[in-house]
Design goal:
Keywords: Signal
Protein name: DUF4252 domain-containing protein
Radius of gyration: 22 Å
CATH topology: Transcriptional Co-activator pc4, Chain A
Number of strands: 8
Distance between the termini: 72 Å
Organism: Tenacibaculum sp. Pbs-1
Largest sheet: 4 strands, antiparallel
Strand order of the largest sheet: 1-2-3-4
Helix content: 25-40%
Number of domains: 1
Mean pLDDT: 86
Strand content: 35-45%
Oligomer: single chain
């Protein structure tokens, strides 16, 4: 009897590992895209902000995610636009889904530009950096 239960348990465990299960994917949509940077909407409530790390020779894409709970997409856009207006000496620091992101503003040839900086959790010693973004490019990312 013990052997019968052992055999049945073994067959059941092997059969459960070999099952194929279909996983539904969430619909994604690109909100805005410019060279090396884009904003992606995931379903109804989440967003990913992707940019290529210009500090990396292979220019891998890095991202931070956030949920749009209290119109957070619009809040992020307003924070970024405020930086273009004020041109702060110190970068703005925001937190999105546990990641800390710096919004660093610099003036190049009289034009205020934004650079996104972030430490990636898998390698906390390396800072990722986006290309410099203009006010117009930021508005295009947010479809404004």
């Amino acid at each position: 009897m013990k052997k019968l239960f052992l055999l049945a348990g073994l067959l059941f465990s092997v059969a459960s590992y070999s099952q194929i299960e279909f996983i539904e994917t969430t619909k994604t949509e690109i909100v805005g895209k410019i060279e090396y940077v884009y904003l992606e909407k995931i379903g109804d409530k989440a967003y990913n902000f992707y940019y290529k790390n210009i500090n990396d020779p292979i220019h891998e894409y890095v991202h931070f995610s956030f949920k749009n709970l209290d119109n957070d997409v619009e809040k992020l856009h307003q924070i970024i636009v405020k930086g273009f207006e004020e041109n702060p000496r110190d970068p703005y620091k925001i937190k999105a889904n546990g990641d800390v992101i710096w919004l660093k503003y610099t003036k190049v040839d009289g034009v205020v530009m934004l650079q996104i900086q972030q430490y990636v959790s898998r390698d906390p010693d390396i800072m990722t950096v986006s290309k410099l973004l203009t006010y117009e490019e930021v508005n295009k990312l947010f479809s404004k």
